[in-house]
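Exercise 7.
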Amino acid sequence: MKFSTTCTALLLASASAFTPSHKPFCSTSLKAQTGVSRTDFFAQLAGVAVVASAFPGAANAAKYGGIGASSPGVLDPKEAIVDSEILASSGVQDALKSVKSYAALVGEMKKTVAGNEQVNLGPVLRKQFDFGKLRADLNTLNTAFDEDTQRGTDRLIRGILQDLTEIETANVQKEGIERSPRRVATLNAKLDKVESAFNQYLAFVP
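Solution. The predicted structure, written as tokens, is:
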């Protein structure tokens, strides 16, 4: 995916004036490619949250990274079983390149916000993070992992998708009103969170 030139242009165009446009990025693509609307998808996430609250042990086992990495039932990325033939296939390699590009783009957005707290990330989110394609790329790469590993990476995938939607919401600002320090902090926290999720997911790839 050719991110850098397009994304830089979009971010620079957004930096001069904040013109929020709260349009859900790629909901149409999601319906067309997966048959699941964003509303349905997050309703499913809500159901998972209810189950997790009812069974706290299972919730602890779902944690990755620096929090709960040693919880029962959670594989460390170093212990993941990866099918080398599937990983080497052209489709999975293309998906891997795309996921790495998405992760790099999050880093670019963080740098842009650091340089201009009022920048509108909406154009980049809608153009570069096509919800349906992003989910397809993550799931395609996921096929290289064994079932035990996928129990954790599936959760990371859902987290990435939810995190990006939260960034879209945090980015929205009324026209003519500057983003407050509190909202800037919230946006930065969301960007940090999705960057971490991408890094945790990519850590499973040898």
